[in-house]
Structure formats: C-alpha cells, structure tokens
C-alpha cells in the first residue's frame, strides 16, 4: 500500500438525477452536498488508480464500488460489491472481487471473495524479531476463494458457516537469501481447503461508520489433510471484538481486539502465518515483516466527524506475533497515526480513507511507517 495514489477523477458514479440539472450541479450533489440522498437508491463509483513502488514499478488500474439495499433502508444494512484490478510495468497483476450482501431485515448475511495476485513479496523470515537486512525478494502467485453465510438466530445474534480454498506458488528472485538458507523453500507451493462454524454478536448502529454498539465474531475452522505434500492441515481459530462509544454528537471512541491462531498438524507453512500490519490494524508496519503461528493485536481510534462529508481520525495500537517463542510483554510492538475521511455516499456512510501510520524503530533501521488509501473504515 505504500506510495499508492488514487486519482479522484472518475465521474462515472453519478446517480440518476433530474434531467434539468447541469453536470456541475449533479457533481456537487454527488460529491460535495452536505445533504444525504434518502431515496435508498443504488450507487456506483468507479475510480482509476495507479502508483509506484520499487518492487512493482509503475502500476495502473481501476476499482469499482456498487452499493445497494436488498430491503427497506431503515431496517436493512446496505450491501456492497467491490472490484479492483491493477497491472504494473514489471508485469505484476492484482485482482479482487468481493460481494457483501444483507437480505431483507438483515435475516441473512453473506460474503464471498475471489482474489488473484501475482506480486513481488518482500520476505523477512518468520518470528517477532525479523531483520530488515534479511529481506529476500520472492514472486507470489496467490489464488483465494472464500466466504461465509450467517443466519439471524435472535436480535443481534448470528450463527453460520464459513469455507475457503487457497493456492500459493513462490519463485525466489534472489538466490542464496533467507528463503533458501532457512529452508522456507520447501513450501514453494501450497494448497489449503477449510470449513468451519462461526457466531457473531452485532449491535452496531451502522456497519460502515459505527458510532454506537458492539461487534464480536468468533470462528473455528478445520483444514483436513486433503492434499499430498507440504500443505497445511489443522485448526484455525479467529476472534474479532469491537466496541464503539459516542463521546459527543461528532466524536466516537472505538476499540478493537483481534486474535488469530493456527494449530498445524506438522510444519506450519510461512504463507498462512498471520502477518502484522495492513490498512486495517497495526497500520505503519510493512505487511509480512513480522509473521508467526499466533497473532494478537488491539487498537483504539478517536473519530471526529468534522462535517457530513469529512472526518478526522487519530489511532494507536499494540500487537505481537508469536509461536516460535512464547508471548512476551517486552515483545509487544506499538503503532500510532492519523487519517482523513471523505464520505462520498452520505446515506450509506461509505468513505474513502487516507491514513498515515508509524511503527517501532528497531536498532540500525528506520522507523517503520506506511501510507494507506482504502475504502471504508478500518473497523
């Protein structure tokens, strides 16, 4: 996500308006008006995107977001389908399609994701104390298909099933590095198929910009030894808790804690190990710099809705990966930062966010940091 630039120049998201309105008036209504559209109509936003990073070269692509309701907007959460694709001068490809759909009165909630990525991977080894000097460059071919479906069992309580398939292939771009020295290359290819159960408590007043309520999701999945060779088999335990408290009409205090545990039957492939750092939690850490079998992190945000269209955020958190070594208090890593929010769909509270995060400064290395441009809130 570093060095990523989104060009807000696409005008394809303009919804249908009265024919007598000029283009300028329609643009103002869509992107700058402080009044939300209460009609409950669907909306489409298409944005060209591009960027640069040393590993990928120049990249260009597009992303589209289609939002809609499957029922009355007063009793049904908004559904959203997002698609994105980018291509770089170094022939790197990244494509993703995600559908998140709520049925009438939120009785059912389904989510499905398909992702393909051929991408340069900066690999530092595994553990909570990897070194920047050990950086080894790989090429990752990754395909993921996963999803879940939940059924409302009681007000604010859901139960459901989840399943997925993932396939990984790696090519070492630099011979003699840590990838081969530490025998990680025995996992040059890998597949995993899993299925499990989940339960969710959800009392949030809005799924896109929450100012009040709680969210708690836990799941346990099992990956059988379905494939021959060095492939993951075992159990996957995930937990995600969020709490939102309104301090004033414009200020919200938000908290999140996550835990991701992989219990492997045999050697644990590095590519499935939880990674610290992304655009959602522990912002500021290069994703994959620290990875291990277990990952625990927590963060807090102060959200300030400056105007209906714009908001500000300050955040901070703590996190650690462990497994090779036990969890240790002195191994916990901090992060902090701030961000800006632009709400392009006021009725559904769908936002584009810009965050800049800082992590720890290790001896002999620059302070870790990252800039992110993403859709919707971090949590």
UniProtKB/TrEMBL annotation:
Gene3D superfamilies: membrane protein fhac: a member of the omp85/tpsb transporter family
Organism domain of life: Bacteria
This protein's UniProt keywords: Signal
Signal peptide: 1-18
Official protein name in the record: Polymerase
UniProt organism field: Haoranjiania flava
């Amino acid at each position: 996500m570093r060095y990523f630039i989104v060009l807000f120049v696409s005008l394809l998201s303009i919804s249908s308006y009265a024919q007598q309105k000029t283009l300028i008036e329609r643009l103002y209504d869509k992107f700058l008006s402080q009044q939300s559209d209460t009609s409950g109509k669907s909306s489409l936003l298409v944005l060209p995107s591009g960027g640069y990073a040393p590993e990928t070269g120049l990249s260009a692509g597009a992303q589209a977001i289609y939002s809609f309701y499957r029922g009355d907007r007063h009793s049904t959460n908004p559904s959203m389908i997002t698609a994105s694709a980018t291509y770089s001068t170094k022939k790197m490809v990244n494509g993703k399609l995600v559908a998140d759909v709520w049925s009438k009165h939120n009785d059912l909630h389904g989510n499905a994701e398909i992702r393909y990525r051929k991408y340069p991977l900066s690999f530092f080894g595994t553990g909570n104390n990897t070194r920047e000097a050990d950086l080894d460059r790989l090429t990752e071919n990754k395909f993921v298909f996963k999803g879940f479906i939940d059924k409302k069992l009681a007000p604010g309580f859901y139960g459901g099933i989840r399943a997925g398939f993932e396939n990984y292939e790696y090519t070492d771009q630099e011979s003699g590095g840590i990838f081969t020295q530490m025998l990680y290359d025995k996992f040059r290819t890998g597949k995993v198929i899993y299925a499990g159960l989940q339960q969710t408590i959800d009392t949030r007043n809005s799924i896109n910009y929450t100012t009040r309520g709680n969210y708690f999701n836990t799941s346990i999945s099992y990956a059988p030894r379905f494939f021959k060779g060095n492939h993951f088999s075992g159990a996957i335990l995930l937990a995600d808790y969020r709490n939102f408290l309104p301090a004033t009409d414009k200020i919200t205090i938000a908290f999140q804690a996550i835990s991701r545990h992989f219990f492997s039957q045999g050697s644990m492939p590095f590519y499935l190990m939880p990674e610290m750092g992304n655009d959602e939690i522990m912002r500021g850490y290069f994703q994959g710099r620290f990875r291990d079998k277990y990952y625990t992190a927590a963060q807090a945000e102060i959200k300030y809705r400056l105007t209906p269209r714009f908001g500000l955020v300050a955040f901070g958190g703590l996190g650690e990966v462990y497994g090779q070594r036990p969890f240790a208090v002195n191994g916990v890593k901090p992060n902090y930062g701030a961000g800006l929010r632009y709400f392009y769909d006021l009725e559904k509270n769908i936002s584009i966010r810009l965050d800049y995060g800082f992590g720890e400064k290790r001896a002999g290395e620059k302070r870790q940091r990252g800039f992110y441009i993403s859709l919707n809130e971090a949590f």
